[in-house]
C-alpha cells in the first residue's frame, strides 16, 4: 500500500522548550526534515528527543518565537488531531479489550469512515504488517512484536502525513527487535512517508535512519547520514556516544604517528613535529602475534579477553591513557598477560568533521 498522502517536509525553526518547573528541555533548535525521509533522533536519556517529537506531534508547543511547519503550513499551534500525524509508542497504547481489527479501525470509526472502506483498509494494513488472519484476535492475546505491528497499522490507518515513532521497539527482546526493525525498515521505504523515530539505541538509529540527529542536553550535536556520524563525528560527544572509539596521542614523526610503544598511520590533520590524536574503531584494529610485529605496529600487553560468540574483544595496554579495544571475528586467541601487537590501517582512522552541528544535506 502506498501512502495516499504526498510526503511532506517538516521544519522546526528556533524551537526552544521550557517547562513550568523551570527545566529547559530544549535550546532554540533548527531542523529541516526532507519529504519521505526517516529521521532518527538519537541521544542519551533526558537529551530532549521525546520533547522534540512531541512538538512535531502537537503534544507540546514551543516557547514563544518557535515555529513548526509541515510543508508551507504553519502548524505551530495546531493540536495533534489537526496535524495528520500517526504515532507509535514503546508501550503500544492499544485498547486491550478490543480485537486487532477494532483497534486498527478505531480512528476511522471516530472519523466516520464507512464500514466497507474501514474493513478494506484494515485488511490491507494487516497484510502490510504481516498479521493476516488475526483481525478477530484480542490484543491481550498477542505477543509484544505482534502488538507493536498492530500499533503501527493503527497509526497508518488514518493515512497520516507524518509518522512519529517513540522508542517503538524498546519493549521487545533482542531477536524480535531485529526482526521487527527489518520489517519496519522495508515498510518505511515502501511507504515513502516522512517519519521521525526516537531512540537511544545507536544500532537501531544506524539501521533505520536516512539521517540521524545526535542530541546532547537539549541541543543538536550533529546531523548526518549514519556513515557521516560513524566515520566523521563532529565532536567528542558524538565520537564517544556512537560505537566504541579508541583514541591515542602521539607525535608526528615523518609519515607516522610516533607513540612510546610503536607507530600508527598519520591522522588526516596531522602537522609535522606536533602532537596529534588518532581515533579508530575496535573492529578496525588488527591483532597480531608479537613475533610478527614490525615498525608499523604498536606493542602492548593483553589485559583482558572477552569471547562474545560472533567476535572476540581484546583490551590491550599500550602505555596510553586508556587501553586500546580491539574486536575481531577471526578465530585467534591470546591469553591475558601476553605481549601482543596491533596494526591499524590508515584508511581506518576516524576523522572529526571540521564543523559541528551543521546540516549536511
Ligand atoms: N512535562 C515535563 N515537565 C518538566 N520537565 C520535563 C517534562 N518533560 C520532560 N522534561 C525534562 O526535559 C528534559 C528532556 O526530556 P525528554 O523526555 O525530551 O528527553 P529524552 O531524550 O526523550 O529522554 P528519554 O530517552 O529518557 O525519554 C529532561 O530533563 C526531562 O526531565
From TrEMBL:
Any Pfam family the entry gives: ABC_tran
MF-aspect GO terms: ABC-type transporter activity; ATP binding; ATP hydrolysis activity
Q: Which UniProt keywords apply?
A: ATP-binding, Cell membrane, Membrane, Nucleotide-binding, Translocase, Transport
* ABC transporter domain span: 10-242
Look up keyword Iron-sulfur and say if it applies. Answer: no
Q: Return the InterPro entries for the record.
A: AAA+_ATPase, ABC_transporter-like_ATP-bd, ABC_transporter-like_CS, ABC_transpr_MalK/UgpC-like, Mo/tungstate-bd_C_term_dom, P-loop_NTPase, Transp-assoc_OB_typ2
Looking up PROSITE patterns in the UniProt record yields:
ABC_TRANSPORTER_1 (PS00211), ABC_TRANSPORTER_2 (PS50893)
Which top-rank group of organisms is this from? Bacteria
Q: Name one GO cellular component term.
A: ATP-binding cassette (ABC) transporter complex, substrate-binding subunit-containing
Q: What is this protein called?
A: ABC-type spermidine/putrescine transport systems, ATPase component protein
